[in-house]
Amino acid sequence: MKIATWNVNSVRKRTGNLVSWLERAKPDVVVLQEIKAQEPQFPVLEVEAAGYKVAIVGQKGFNGVALLSLHPFDVTARALPGHVDDEPARYVEGRIHTPRGPLTVGGIYLPNGNPIGTEKFTYKLAWMERLFSHARELLAREEMFVLGGDYNVCPTEVDVFNPIAFSGDALCQPESRAALRKLLNLGLTDAVRAFHPEDAHYTFWDYQAGAWQKDNGLRIDHLLLSPQAADRLTAVGIDKAERGMTEPSDHVPVWCELDAAA
């Protein structure tokens, strides 16, 4: 089972990139962020032609998430519990019916939170607290799950190319990092760090100032695994080459593989 997350930064602009990557990488399940489209605008026909079933939580021009799966699934949430009716489209969750049993996958587009000292940062931390509560509920079921997405948090100094330059950014604030650690301390596993505990491995490069060419990146896209999923973890990867494609997203896919026979 290959599970992936990708902030595509406008699915209408990146339809070709997305479909080409799906055909090459062949993930079983993908969660997308920043689709920046409402459901009728999503390229459903193209994605279905690649073999995927789709669930979309869209929004006009901003945010938006989607869940793609080669396997049948039931949508179990279209917003994070505790939401208000007009909350931006930031969460989708499905129960995937795999040949080896059920797998719950949540797709997250966590608030950016900038600038700090404003209601945007307060909202970010409150959203992370709601995510913590939901993850705790999922753990209580003792089932396999993966929470993947754009978390908009660099967990440590290693995950940002210039910690000093980002010291005032919401992605690197002590409160943001503490909230992510609190989530991990429930017993979740950061898939990339399970295989690469120390090295810098980026998932985002800004469009400005030659960030891609200079490898001035951030690691803000994460796959967090329940103990049942972590026990089956066999591989992880960051498809960095996608950032060098024509008209790329500023994020790249992050994926992990779970041993279906474990």
Structure description:
- The protein has a single domain (2-258), classed as Endonuclease/exonuclease/phosphatase (Deoxyribonuclease I, Chain A).
- It is 24% helix and 27% strand.
- It has 7 helices and 14 strands.
- Strand 7, helix 3 (119-140) and strand 8 (145-150) form a beta-alpha-beta unit.
- The radius of gyration is 17 Å and the shape is globular.
- It starts with a strand and ends with a strand.
- The mean pLDDT is 97.
- Tell me the name of the CATH homologous superfamily: Endonuclease/exonuclease/phosphatase
Main beta sheet = 6 strands, mixed
CATH class: Alpha Beta
Summarize the helix and strand pattern as letters.
EHEHEEEEEHEHEHEHEEHEE
Average pLDDT for all residues: 97
Structural class by sheet pairing and helices: alpha+beta
Map the helices and strands.
Elements: E1 2-7, H1 15-25, E2 29-33, H2 44-49, E3 53-57, E4 65-69, E5 73-77, E6 91-98, E7 101-109, H3 119-140, E8 145-150, H4 174-184, E9 189-190, H5 191-195, E10 204-205, H6 211-214, E11 217-218, E12 221-225, H7 227-230, E13 233-238, E14 254-258
Parallel strand pairs: 1-2, 7-8
Antiparallel strand pairs: 1-14, 2-4, 3-4, 5-6, 6-7, 8-12, 9-12, 10-11, 13-14
Helix pairs in contact: 3-4
Summary of the model, kept short:
With 262 residues, the chain is an alpha+beta fold. It has helices at residues 15-25, 44-49, 119-140, 174-184, 191-195, 211-214, 227-230, and strands at residues 2-7, 29-33, 53-57, 65-69, 73-77, 91-98, 101-109, 145-150, 189-190, 204-205, 217-218, 221-225, 233-238, 254-258. A six-stranded mixed beta sheet has the order 3-4-2-1-14-13. The chain has a six-stranded mixed beta sheet with strand order 5-6-7-8-12-9. The protein has a two-stranded antiparallel ribbon with strand order 10-11.
